[in-house]
Fold this sequence. Notes:
disordered C terminus
Amino acid sequence: MVKAVSKVAYLDGIRGVAAFLVFFHHFLLVFFSAFYSFDVHATNLYGWDVRYGQSIFSVLSNGHFFVCIFFVLSGFVLSRKYYQTNDLEVVLSGAHRRFLRLYIPVASTIIISYLMLKAGLFYNGPVSVMRHSEWWFGTQWNIPEPLFQLWIGLKYTALFLGDSTFNTSLWTMSIEFFGSFFVFGFLAFTHNTNRKLLVLFLTLLYFKFTEQPNMANFIFGISLNYLEQLAPTFRKNAVNIAVIMLVLLGLFLGSYPSSNYHGGTIFEKFSPFILKYNRWYHSIGALCVVAAVILSPFLQKLFSLKPVRFLGYISFSLYLLHPLVLGSFSSWLYLKLAVPVGFNKAVCVIFVLTSLVCLLLSWIMTKFIDDPGVEFSKYVYNRWFKKAKVADNSPENGIE
């Protein structure tokens, strides 16, 4: 009998921090969009937001980098139990449950967004004009036929095409969905071979030649299982040095601007040959950061702290809900506070209150939508798809 594999707390912690920093990225896009566009005419902080965006510290609000961390984590987490048990049932269970596990919370946020739109609860339009974020924030929830878009979004476009009409975060859902099934397919395809690493490498080469870094993230995640297995054999001093180098390299690559405009940044000094691979910087950076945590007991303890684990618990709901809060509550509050309080004070207050509202609503959604959705997906699998145990009626067991 194979011993059950326990859930690793630090993996949830990484996901939770990444989700919160994606929220931080979108918050800055709403109120300090110049950090992303480098447009000095759109600055709200006398050019300091542009300088921040051009610095390596902008990694703290580089949303695409943290999305890559999500994908790498998915590849690792979805394959980890299989690599520890070599049980194909783990793959079948995950594959059968994956659609409902993703669809239920995604569909819920689409419906919530539609209802908020019909109720007139989004105030992003005027705020985007005031804060020079019309190019992004101003385009959201501008839906000519919302009922029709709701219908096709629920049917297939949100999960299968990454349709972000009702929620800007949903562009990643099709990648997560197909990437998950790629992981399950890869594990099933290589189940009876001892050449998994070779197939893994060849698949990575295919994704490189076809320029699919987002899908390559899932390959990186699967490959981390080998690192985890080998980690106990490494020397402690070598591991400590490797962890520091991986963290520094990962964060540096993660600071490459998501807009792909690197004027004024340190990347401007790179040769054209190196910049040719800029689409892969965030993926490689995400691999480095997650690998560093897998190697480091200290980082694992850090990401296993209770507040961080709480962020991990609500991470999926936080990722899905925060754009709706920014478009409604945060925008409404800004319109109320900006003139009487002043821009800087208003934004500080809004960030604190928005964070609290997002955490509370995400906990509620996790408790009453996401968790029940996970349990429902397990019920459907156990009820309809799980192979029933067949009693052994052979004469050897003394049963006639």
